Amino acid sequence: MPSTAASTSASGHGPLLGIGQVLALLQPEFPELTPSKLRFLEEQRLVSPARTAAGYRKFSQADVDRITVVLSMQRDQYLPLKVIRAHLEAIDAGETPALPNAANAASFLAGARRYRRDELIEAVGASRSLLDEAVSASLLPAAEQYGDEAVEVLQALVALRAVGIEPRHLRGIRAAAEREATLVERAIAPSRRADAAGKARAAERALELARHLETVHSSLVRDAVARLGR
Q1: pLDDT tens, 120-135?
Q2: What is the CATH number of domain 115-228?
Q3: What whole-number distance in Å separates Cα of residue 137 and Cα of residue 140?
Q4: Span 4-110: which CATH code?
Q5: Which pLDDT value is given to residue 11?
Q6: Per-residue confidence at 105, pLDDT binned at 50, 70, 90?
Q7: Which end of the chain is more exposed for a tag (fewer CB within 10 A), N or C?
């Protein structure tokens, strides 16, 4: 039986709901909603359900309303989750942002922080040779500008080089990623449609599947490393 904290919302307005109850409420309007999709929205910081002592997710009415907004904006405006998250964060901060659409979503994405090669190297504290080697090993693209994800990758490569793991040692990761991408492409192919809504849903599903593959990969690496110390 859930604890009192998990049985009522933080505001005291009604009970908190489990994943199954949320699905029952929202699937009539959003039939593609699944437990996996709910977890994915949480991973993307679009909703933050409470947790019981046992770790089960519990959703307030405010959470359900927020999920409804996210799913509606995806379905009706074909907006990327990154744009939806920025819109909701602005509202959370007390602002009154204009409702995003496809045009200003594109502007938002285009306006995301970009780093020239020298700026990327300086931001991470990496050497130019490390960036060149990362590109040579296909761990980063050969580009004139990079986004925040490249910062994270290069930071990881700096830490790995410090213990003797070089980009050339990681070429197999790129090959494995390409094989996994092929699996995802095959999985979403039956549901992919030519219209904008179909493409948006297929792209979202692809990212969700990629997260699952990351989970499996991370678990296998941790398990293999743990066995080294036995």
Answers
A1: 999 999 999 999 999 9
A2: 1.10.1660
A3: 8
A4: 1.10.1660.10
A5: 45
A6: low
A7: C
